[in-house]
Amino acid sequence: MTLSVSNLSKRYLENNQEVEVFHNLDISLERGSFVSLIGPSGSGKSTFLNIIAGIELPDTGKVYLYGKDITGTSGNVGYMFQKDLLLPFRTLEQNVRLGCDLRGLDKKTTSDSTRKWLERFDLQEFANYYPHQLSGGMRQRGALLRTILFGQSTLLLDEPFGALDALTRREMQYWLLSIWNEMQNTVLFVTHDIEEAILLSDQIIVLSKRPAEIVEILDVPFPRPRNPELILSTEILEIKKKLFHLLNA
Amino acid sequence: MLKKVVNIKNLFHYTPAMLFLVILISVWQYTVNKYEVPPWLLPSPLKVGQALWETKSLIWGHAQITILEISTGFSLAIILGILVSTLMTLFPFAKRIFYPFLIFSQTVPLIAVAPLLILWLGYGLLPKFIIIILVCFFPIAVSLLEGLEVSDRDLLNLLRSMGASKWQIFYYVRWPHALPSLFAGLKIAATYSVMAAVIAEWLGASQGLGVYLTRSSNNFLTDRVFAAIITISALSFLYYTIIMLLTKLLLPWYSQISQNND
Question: CB contact, 8 Å: A128 with chain B?
Answer without folding.
Answer: no
